[in-house]
Amino acid sequence: MAMQFEYTVPQPPRRNTTLRTVLIVVGVLAVLCCGGGGVGAYFLFNKVADSTSAAQAAAEAYVGALESGDFAAAYGLACAATRGEHTQDDYVAALGRQPKIQSHKVVGTFIRNVNGKTSADITMDVVYAEGSPKRYVFTLVEEGDAWKVCGVPS
Fold first, then answer.
1. Closest alpha carbon to 126 in 150, 149, 144, 105
2. Which domains does the chain have, with CATH numbers?
3. Structure confidence at residue 67 (pLDDT)
4. I want to staple 121 with a disulfide (CB 3.0 to 4.6 A). Which of 45, 78, 84, 110 is the partner?
5. What is the pLDDT of residues 24-71, one digit of tens each?
6. How far is the C-alpha of 103 from the C-alpha of 63, rounded, in Å?
7. Taking the CA atoms of the chain, what radius of gyration do you get in angstroms?
8. DSSP assignment of the chain, as one string?
């Protein structure tokens, strides 16, 4: 009697998929982190852009009031600390002694947040009626939802 051998096809060894799984997980996490960072940067940029434009608008309104000679309106745009140091009459009198402003232009904006208090420095080139230019830095603080100018320009 002849011996019969049963022949079985050997199965290939099982592939180790641990490396592939780890790389997929790392890739997914990287996409999520980068995407989250991108979304966070977008919202941060929009917040800064909103603050910058609001602070500039407040400084423009203040200097516009000075240009038009409406010093009472300028006093209304002053911060609480400045209004606490000066009565409206003193403030208006001090501004009335200043040369008349002919034009102005914003040349720089710097916003900062220190210990939860937001403030801004708006740099403007001001040209007086007699033609002399001067560069001012107006300091503004955020009071509630509004930006207010601190100090009296000199």
1. 105
2. 22-150 (3.10.450.50)
3. 94
4. 110
5. 887 777 777 766 665 555 554 445 445 578 999 999 999 999 999 999
6. 9
7. 33
8. --------PPPPPPP--HHHHHHHHHHHHHHHHHHHHHHHHHHHHHHHHHHHHHHHHHHHHHHHHHHHT-HHHHHHTB-HHHHHHS-HHHHHHHHHTSPPEEEEEEEEEEEEEETTEEEEEEEEEEEETTS-EEEEEEEEEEETTEEEEES---
